[in-house]
Write a structure and sequence with these properties.
Layout lengths: L1 E5 L3 H12 L3 E5 L7 H6 L7 E2 L3 H6 L5 H10 L2 H10 L4 E3 L4 E4 L5 H13 L3 E3 L2 E6 L5 E5 L2 E5 L3 E4 L15 H7 L5 E6 L3 E3 L3 H7 L3 E9 L2 E9 L3 E3 L1 H5 L1 H11 L2 E6 L6 H8 L8 H9 L3 H13 L9 H8 L2 E8 L7 E5 L17 E3 L13 H22 L1
Parallel strand pairs: 1-2, 1-10, 2-6, 10-19
Antiparallel strand pairs: 3-5, 4-5, 7-8, 8-9, 11-18, 12-15, 12-17, 13-14, 13-16, 14-15, 16-17
Helix pairs in contact: 1-15, 4-15, 11-14
């Protein structure tokens, strides 16, 4: 049983492990000179493998894709992923937010141990092999350093990721190949991305790179507490990413989205009003807000930017109105940050193009997994969990196909 796995990210490597453990002869093909590049990038700030919350709440983060991903994640849930990591000598722990990390916090020790296991299972890895599609007779075709390469395995698992961070290997070029074979592909879009804001030059130059901590972002009836960062072109950060799907869809539909930001969500309106009722005397507005509302310079700058953008007069605001404004600062988002800097992508192959075993209905013997499929999830461990779980599902599906 010869199986080709195309793509050496988490989904592809996991499919390869499942296949090799089941007795298949597996070769992994990847266009990059080394494996797991985006996986290593994900671990730079601490590798968030999964999340510890109960499975029903966990699955809800996949939104409309939840019914399609449920079986794969239930078959390989967060606890199974943690046990798998522990089996590679990389025990995990649960952080204060419920997120799960390997104790080493980095991706590199886990990846090294994983590659050693794959080597022991007999998995071969062919790097610098860019997949270009199928020949007329159904052979897989690659551009390699030695020239064109054609192979015809007994089954194929393709896990080429989305289109974010193309320099790390996922450039979305596979979409045209699939479309040419009659397989529907939803347009790839930025997910867990930043957004564009028309900052003034003064605000942009002074506060680029500054964080806003402990804020609460609200849009479309959803609210998220966390941290965001001012960028030269707009905003980014964990709290922003958690709302990226509805914000993106609103911008695509109407050209803009108005985000509401609470700068001091931990203080009640009544308490904030009382603080702002103190005599201002000769203090500047910035000094007054810093002392009475404990706002950071970046928060005060954002507040003033919104006052100017929406033609408001702070001198005409009562303490109650100013308190309300501080915890509902409107920011007009005018666009979505470029997909090549997004953490992940939405869109891809719809689930109705695959069967319950992750095999393409129109190309028997070809399975797909990971971010190529049309789903998205916020950061917090949900992205990697679904990549691992669909990799397991595709690997098992390919084994079942080969046995049939």
């Amino acid at each position: 049983m010869d199986v080709a796995v195309i793509g050496a990210g988490p989904a592809g490597l996991m499919a390869a492990e499942v296949l090799a453990s089941g007795g298949a002869r597996v070769t992994i093909y990847d266009r990059m000179p080394s494996v797991g590049r985006k996986f290593l990038m994900a671990g730079r700030g601490g590798l968030n493998l999964t999340h510890s919350e109960p499975l029903p709440q966990f699955l809800a983060h996949y939104r409309e894709a939840e019914p399609h991903l449920r079986a794969a994640i239930e078959a390989f849930p967060p606890n199974a992923l943690r046990a798998w990591s522990d089996g590679l000598g990389q025990p995990t722990f649960v952080g204060s937010s419920g997120r799960v990390f390997p104790e080493a916090m980095k991706a590199s020790p886990l990846l090294r141990a994983w590659l050693q296991r794959l080597d022991q299972l007999g998995v071969r890895i062919s790097l610098r092999h860019r997949w270009t599609g199928w020949s007329a007779s159904g052979e897989l075709q690659f551009d390699a350093a030695e020239g064109a390469v054609s192979i015809k395995p007994d089954a194929t698992v393709i896990a080429l990721g989305g289109a974010s961070w193309p320099r790390l290997g996922a450039d979305g070029s596979w979409a045209d190949i699939f479309a040419a074979h009659g397989i529907a592909v939803s347009s790839l879009r930025s997910a867990n991305s930043g957004f564009l804001v028309g900052w003034s030059d003064l605000f942009r130059d002074r506060f680029e790179g500054e964080p806003l901590k402990g804020v609460e972002l609200s849009f479309g009836g959803q609210s998220v507490r966390g941290e965001m960062t001012i960028t030269r072109g707009g905003i980014e950060g964990g709290a922003v990413y958690a709302l990226s799907a509805p914000l993106r869809e609103a911008i695509l539909a109407t050209g803009e989205a108005k985000l509401s930001i609470a700068l001091r969500p931990d203080i009640s309106r009544a308490d904030l009003t009382k603080r702002l009722s103190a005599a201002r005397k000769k203090q500047s507005l910035s000094t007054f807000l810093r002392k009475q509302a404990a706002l950071s310079p970046a928060a005060i700058g954002l507040l003033q930017e919104a006052i100017i953008a929406f033609d408001l007069l702070p001198s005409a605001m009562s303490p109650d109105q100013l308190a309300s404004f501080i915890n509902a600062v409107p920011v007009r988002l005018t666009g979505v940050a470029a997909i090549d800097r997004a953490i992940s992508t939405a869109g891809g192959i719809p689930f109705n193009e695959i069967d319950a075993h992750y095999m393409l209905r129109k190309i028997p013997g070809v399975f797909v997994a990971g971010e190529m499929l049309d789903w998205e999830a916020p950061t917090g461990g949900y992205l990697l969990q679904a990549c691992f779980a669909t990799g397991v599902a595709a690997g098992k599906g390919a084994l079942d196909y080969l046995k049939r």
